[in-house]
Write a structure and sequence with these properties.
The structure holds two protein chains of two kinds.
Chain A: E1 9-18, E2 21-31, E3 36-40, H1 47-54, E4 60-67, E5 70-71, H2 77-81, E6 85-88, H3 100-105, H4 117-123, H5 125-129, H6 140-152, E7 158-162, H7 170-185, E8 189-193, H8 197-203, E9 206-211, E10 214-220, H9 224-235
Parallel strand pairs in A: 3-8, 3-9, 6-7, 7-8
Antiparallel strand pairs in A: 1-2, 1-4, 4-5, 9-10
Chain B: H1 8-39, H2 46-64, H3 68-89, H4 99-121, E1 135-137, E2 142-144, H5 145-167, H6 169-186, H7 191-213, H8 223-238, H9 243-263, H10 268-282
Antiparallel strand pairs in B: 1-2
Helix pairs in contact in B: 1-5, 1-7, 1-8, 1-9, 2-3, 2-4, 2-7, 2-8, 3-7, 5-6, 8-9, 8-10, 9-10
The chains are: A alpha/beta, B mainly alpha.
Chain lengths: 237, 292
């Protein structure tokens, strides 16, 4: 395997538990540099849990999770993040006691090569005008933009985006879809959890289908229409 | 000229005493609020740590001849290190348990520490010489310089801590971690270290309060117990974990206590608790709570 093809993320037989309950049952998947993969599946299939396990936010996990070439199974969450991971949680995780600027600047720079403030304001012009408002006073769409913008500053190269379009107006969903395309074009490696099949299929190289904490199928992203009936059975739509 | 049948001398004098007591309440409840905000630990050892500050200052003076000004720096650092060890080896193990475990563990630590000091040095107060003797006649009362110093340094510490938390980058980490520490850690911030340092800071603040108290109140094993009960009432009134709430209600309750001493001396000791019950009935999560 050449250097360039070493996966940015390689998960092998990952098992994880919330307290007593066994939630991930031997997840195996890999993501190559610059690739965009989605995790799809019904509610409760283990998509969010998989992202949280990658970050080490589930303390009880077994198996192997190699991020950017390093085994992380024994590391703490902050040590994993420092390898160059950016996490955008499902509920956006905007802090109410921090203003927009503080929210944006909160994640420390992990690696060189992150976007500058000017670049971010070019992509997210709204954030600049709301700089001193409390973070949670923004609209849902603006909060989502802020949640993504703050991890682009840090130099993270592997982004974990958990349902970035959930609960947003169609026009904002389109904007976020375009943004994800831009991020892919810039070379970010992205794992996207997405219920919106339109967004999920637009840019993805591969889809991993999860069910009950297992990867039950893998679908190539390219020719979506051919796979649509199959995907739809998994999603139950 | 009397004010509501009370001489201005008495009124202003008691208000000033209230302000001094309030300075201690504010400093101690501030430390408790900082600790509770980040760790969700009700630090019942806070009174013992305050007492240890005074006690270490006394030891430094009598055993090693270290004067007050040296003790003011050394004692809080020593007690803060003790606190950080306590966090690292005891409280961290309890962080995923119910809040009650942290409360019980710190209460046990308080009892052990007080028991050891009691066993070694007895219950009668140990004297500590006033490092700034003298004072100034204000017309209505004699104000000892030392008490002026206590009020001043307490104000500086409270304001400084507030600025640190509300206006700095480090403070933004703290505020964010108060809300969701696991997400802050997922951004690459070493939250375990932040927790240890925060506990150390809160404990150091309590110990500094103890050193400041040594020349005013006598240094005794029970000095913390008496103080901590009042300080918990202050924290409840201000809102658990609220920094501004802890500071403002600390001073306000000191003054309220002073006023009661003028108008209804018999009720002075229960004023704060009566106010606490009232506050709990009207604003159950505290005057300054953001949770509402």
């Amino acid at each position: 395997m050449s250097e360039a093809q070493t996966p940015h993320l390689a998960i092998t037989d990952l098992n994880a538990w919330y307290g007593e309950s066994h939630v991930l049952h031997g997840i195996t998947l890999d993501v190559k540099p610059g690739e965009l993969v989605t995790l799809i599946g019904r509610n409760g299939a283990g998509k969010t849990t998989t992202l949280r396990s990658i970050m080490g936010m589930l303390k009880n996990r077994k198996g192997s999770v190699r991020c950017l070439g390093q085994e992380t199974i024994g590391l703490r969450t902050y040590q994993i993040a420092r390898l160059g991971l950016g996490f955008c949680p499902e509920d956006r995780g905007i802090f109410a006691s921090l203003d927009v600027q503080e929210n944006l600047m909160l994640p420390p720079v992990l690696k060189p090569g992150g976007m500058s403030e000017d670049e971010l304001f070019a992509i997210f012009p709204n954030l600049k005008t709301r700089f001193n408002s409390p973070g949670t006073k923004l609209s849902g769409g603006e909060q989502q933009m802020l949640a993504i913008a703050r991890i682009l500053r840090t130099g993270a190269s592997l982004l974990l985006l958990d349902e970035p379009t959930e609960g947003l107006a169609p026009v904002i969903v389109k904007q976020i879809g375009r943004l994800i395309g831009q991020l892919k074009a810039r070379g970010f490696t992205i794992i996207l959890v997405e219920q919106n099949i339109q967004i999920a299929s637009q840019w993805a190289d591969r889809h991993f289908v999860l069910e009950s904490g297992r990867v039950v199928d893998q679908v190539e992203g390219g020719d979506l229409t051919a796979h649509m009936p199959r995907l739809k059975t998994y999603l139950g739509v | 000229m009397d004010i509501f049948g009370v001489s201005p001398q008495l009124l202003l004098g008691q208000l000033l005493l209230g302000l001094i007591n309030g300075s201690f309440y504010a400093m101690l409840s501030l430390g408790l609020a900082v600790i509770f905000g980040l760790m969700n630990v009700v630090n019942f050892a806070h009174g013992a740590q305050y007492m240890l500050g005074a006690f270490v200052a006394w030891l430094l003076l009598t055993m090693f001849g270290v004067p007050y000004w040296g003790a003011l720096v050394i004692a809080p650092v020593v007690i803060a290190l003790f606190g950080m060890a306590l966090e690292r080896f005891l409280l961290r193990r309890l962080q995923n348990e119910d809040h009650l475990f942290g409360l019980l563990a710190t209460y046990a630590v308080a009892l052990i520490v007080e028991g050891l000091v009691l066993h070694g040095y007895g219950s009668s107060g140990l004297p500590y010489t006033n490092p700034i003797p003298g004072g100034v006649m204000l017309g209505f009362m004699f104000l000892p310089y030392y008490r002026l110093w206590v009020v001043a340094i307490s104000l500086v510490l409270c304001l400084g801590t507030w600025l640190l938390i509300e206006r700095t980058k480090l403070g933004s980490y703290l505020r964010a971690a108060n809300e969701r520490s696991e997400l802050v850690e997922a951004f690459g911030i070493n939250v375990p270290k932040l927790v240890t340092l925060t506990y150390g800071f809160g404990v150091g603040l309590a110990a500094l309060g103890g050193v400041l108290a040594a020349p005013i109140y006598s240094v005794s094993p029970s000095m913390g117990t008496n103080m901590i009960v009042v300080v918990f009432a202050v924290v409840v009134i201000g809102g658990m974990g609220s920094i501004a709430g802890a500071i403002v209600s600390g001073y306000a309750l000191g003054l309220a206590e002073g006023l009661t001493k003028v108008f209804y001396p018999a009720g002075a000791n229960m004023t704060i608790f009566a106010l606490m019950i009232l506050a709990l009935m009207i604003w159950p999560s505290g005057l300054f709570s953001k949770a509402q």
